[in-house]
Task: inverse folding
């Protein structure tokens, strides 16, 4: 919880004078005073009940939660222009399969690919075609669209390309008459 | 498009991104522009919303991940002063930041559970504008209500 400093209290008072309540809700979550003893006790009880509910989730609820977790991990990852960490397509495909407690062979059967082909997708030795991405979308019942899997693949390739110094050395012998720029 | 803001002058939808600020960036946030002392938030996760075409931060949010409660607390939100009230040019700044907090909560495995401690006078507005429920000491949003909010503010999730 964030409590206001003395000068922040003055700022908050000023903001409440200058703006309507609607404008304030549309622009702020404010620092607030600590709870009273009564509120603190109610709060403790509330969190105890929440922890109980979370601990008593059924395996099906846990599976659903894990699937949504992967969905938003992918979304927040592909939304970032310059992600701090590079995850790749393989990582998320592996997570997707594990979230359903399936073996690779069972999942390969679900999406009608040979187990060795799935294994190549998983270790990055083969790039999945668009048909496979569509099958992933259908398998997730639209939860994770094919376009997200495609953006993941593109992001993985981009990171790979940027980090690969060996290929630059290797390919430089095939390039001549380089443009010379004075920057 | 992901998150986007609406330009009140032209009606245009402008793509926006929300990204985490480094500790150093948080320490440099100005009190004048963002109303409060953000330095204390450097211990938490602070995210800034920008238009894709510009580097200017239009709004900030500070999040506290509470693994034991399986919840994220929104500690603080502030639009930049020039984007507050009637004078503001863009709509959807705070809403996008709250929807982003919901998506981070699902991502963390907390089921979209997000809460904030409201100023009493604006409880009704958080309820009607974002779908928060009042518990007596805080306002919470979770599960399908979190998803509804994310879908409203993030275009790719519809």
Result:
């Amino acid at each position: 919880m964030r409590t206001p400093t003395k000068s922040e209290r003055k700022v908050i008072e000023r903001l409440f004078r200058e703006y309507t309540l609607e404008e304030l809700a549309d622009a702020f979550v404010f620092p607030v005073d600590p709870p009273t003893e009564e509120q603190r006790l109610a709060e403790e009880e509330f969190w105890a009940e929440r922890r109980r509910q979370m601990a008593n989730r059924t395996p099906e609820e846990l599976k659903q939660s894990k699937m949504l977790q992967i969905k938003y991990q992918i979304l927040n990852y592909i939304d970032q222009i310059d992600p701090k960490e590079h995850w790749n397509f393989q990582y998320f495909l592996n997570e997707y399969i594990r979230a359903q407690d399936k073996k690779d062979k069972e999942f390969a059967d679900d999406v009608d690919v040979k187990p060795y082909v799935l294994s190549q997708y998983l270790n990055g030795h083969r790039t999945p075609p668009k048909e496979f991405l569509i099958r992933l979308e259908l398998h997730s019942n639209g939860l994770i669209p094919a376009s997200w899997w495609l953006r993941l693949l593109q992001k993985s390739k981009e990171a790979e390309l940027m980090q690969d110094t060996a290929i630059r050395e290797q390919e430089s012998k095939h390039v001549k008459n380089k443009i010379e720029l004075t920057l | 498009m992901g998150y986007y803001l609406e330009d009140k002058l032209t009606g245009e939808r402008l793509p926006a991104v929300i990204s985490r600020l480094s500790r150093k960036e948080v320490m440099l946030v100005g009190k004048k522009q963002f109303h409060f002392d953000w330095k204390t938030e450097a211990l938490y996760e602070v995210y800034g919303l920008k238009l894709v075409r510009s580097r200017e931060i239009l709004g900030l949010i500070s999040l506290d991940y509470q693994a034991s409660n399986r919840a994220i607390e929104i500690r603080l939100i502030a639009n930049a002063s020039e984007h507050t009230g009637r004078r503001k040019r863009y709509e959807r700044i705070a809403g996008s930041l709250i929807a982003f907090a919901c998506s981070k909560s699902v991502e963390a495995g907390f089921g979209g559970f997000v809460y904030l401690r409201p100023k009493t006078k604006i409880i009704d507005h958080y309820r009607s504008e974002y779908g928060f429920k009042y518990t007596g000491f805080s306002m919470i949003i979770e599960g399908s209500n979190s998803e509804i909010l994310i879908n409203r503010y993030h275009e790719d999730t519809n």
